[in-house]
Amino acid sequence: MAEQTTKRKRPTIKDIARESGYSKTAVSFAFNDPSRISKKACSQILETAERLGYIPDPMARNFSLRRHLSIGFLLPQEIRYSLQNPYAQQVLLGIGSVCEKYGYTLTLIPPLNESVTEAVRNAAVDGLITMGMQVGMDIVSVMKTRLLPYVTIDGTPNEEMPSVNINDEMASYELMKTVLDFGHRNLCIISLGGDIFAEKATKMSLPQRRMEGFKKALSEVGVDLQDVPVLVSEPSLADGKLKGKEILNFNELPTCVVSMNDIVAIGCIVSWNEAGLSVPKDISIAGFDNIDEASCIMPHLTTVEQPAQEKGRLAAEALFKMIHKETLQSVHIQIPHTLIQRDSVKDLTSGQP
Amino acid sequence: MAEQTTKRKRPTIKDIARESGYSKTAVSFAFNDPSRISKKACSQILETAERLGYIPDPMARNFSLRRHLSIGFLLPQEIRYSLQNPYAQQVLLGIGSVCEKYGYTLTLIPPLNESVTEAVRNAAVDGLITMGMQVGMDIVSVMKTRLLPYVTIDGTPNEEMPSVNINDEMASYELMKTVLDFGHRNLCIISLGGDIFAEKATKMSLPQRRMEGFKKALSEVGVDLQDVPVLVSEPSLADGKLKGKEILNFNELPTCVVSMNDIVAIGCIVSWNEAGLSVPKDISIAGFDNIDEASCIMPHLTTVEQPAQEKGRLAAEALFKMIHKETLQSVHIQIPHTLIQRDSVKDLTSGQP
DNA sequence: CTGAAAGCGCTTACAG
DNA sequence: CTGAAAGCGCTTACAG
């Protein structure tokens, strides 16, 4: 008891050993494998531990066992953006539910001191989930030299890049085709940007793949992608509003805007409403992701549904398999998407919205 | 090089020392305090490290330095509920932005194996933020014996319970008063429930404090809280819908439902719309939190705005102060709320919505 | 059933 | 400027 009050330091296994009269080995067993010591020893040790306020140090324990019991989610951008985006939130939720299932914690890793590389070097995790990753990026080599298992969502699949994706090219093709079928020809595209990896992205990055889908649909009706204005927006409501305003200043207002992101599309709608425009009467818009808000906003958004939670879950399950060495080969998962036609794209061919 | 290919194990500081011809001390300094060794030694060591693919083990480093560089957010309920609730998401965002600022990671801690106590015992973090905590709960004593700094949001402030809150009693009073001023007397209250701590909650828990506010407003117009039906809902859209349906089966439909949670209120609206009712024409509803969706749904929700992000930020800032020993006294922060009157409560006194 | 001892991979006084 | 050595608090073969 005296110890408790005098020193403001946690007791260690050594203290419990001394105080209970058993060895450190015995104390360790009392907590981890009671069957290896006598009932009497166990109860005496536990009692002493209780009395001295001893709780085994998780850090020392994990260090000794060479594990963290946590997986990391590398945020693709500043935390306020990442977590503000409902799509990313759903991915997070999916990852989290798997962590819960395995009794792991989920470590959110913000770009440290503006350096993702440093963040990954220092991450105290058993595996890492990233978004939009491609081979060739610095952090990939860090993960590899750390022998840290990783899976990427919405990245560029590759031999060395385990990944979970939808068929983005196909999905975008379908989305654009719907818009074109409704007679729209005067378009504007809002692409994805703003994440930490954008700079290093190559031709086969996610925005590029979606662009390919758009291009294909456009070419089928004789429109050249080159002639369509393209804006790049961060996946946030605020930046969506900004882009919406920017579009209002175009010399010629597009009849339909196609955004790669629902949250940005919603931002556009909000800003257009503020400017007195009515959607889809005055201008149409289509989104991507089918976040909950897409069916909440008026008009309900025409978009591509992709199961964000499922993406997170599958990525996490794959990662756990790698951590537990159940799989040695690289995983490449592709899951289905669905085109959701709602009310935000006006049918120019019939005259009705 | 040969080492690299033959052993599938990460090199340690010892390998770099041997390989570079310097001591482990020197290697450590090369990474942590290059000024303590010669330029030549440093560059040789770093080069060797690069060649062997050496990255200092974060776990060993943290263990040696007795720190985790991470703070924990103990999820108040199963992860899919916690992270599905936009209010909690905003709190998380606030906490996360502060972590980012300090170069810490944010560890989401789900109730482990259904035991929060175990989760807290094992959490590899330097401090903990919880929601709805009160003294007397098991995990409080765990945090104390671990000497783990903690702050609670929406908990019950106390000498030993650093906390961040709004004035919930006052806010609820104002909300209820608004409803009553509009002439509503046939009411239904939906309280908060479903979190992991609900069982142990005492009279001064958050739902109880809000109830006190309701009671006060009700008593001012001669209504006894006892006569108002009270439902308890988990903070999820799904459970909100369920409660909405349940209310439709009441013998007498209330004229207004007062929910302690926007997401539940929105769930009610959705289920009522599905049942062919129109809000607020057929039934009114008021919420709490002012989540983004509250101004998105039709009709816009009358609610209490509480700055969720700010709560998270303040709690995290307070926690970092405790971690860095800048403050030894218990913090008790109360931040302002705002009543937001919108369109979901019908004015029975004028006849107009 | 029990315990002495090595080991996990770092950091850091301390002595030279 | 440099390095041998102790220490962080556990786990776990190993020997008795």
TrEMBL record, chains A, B:
Keyword Cytoplasm set for record: no
Sorted alphabetically, the keyword list is:
DNA-binding, Transcription, Transcription regulation
GO MF assignments: DNA-binding transcription factor activity; transcription cis-regulatory region binding
Q: Out of the domains of life, which is the source?
A: Bacteria
- Calcium is among the record's keywords: no
Stored Gene3D superfamilies: 3.40.50.2300, lambda repressor-like DNA-binding domains (1.10.260.40)
Q: Where is the HTH lacI-type domain?
A: 11-65
Q: Name one Pfam family in it.
A: LacI
Task: From the Swiss-Prot or TrEMBL record, give the protein name.
Answer: LacI family transcriptional regulator
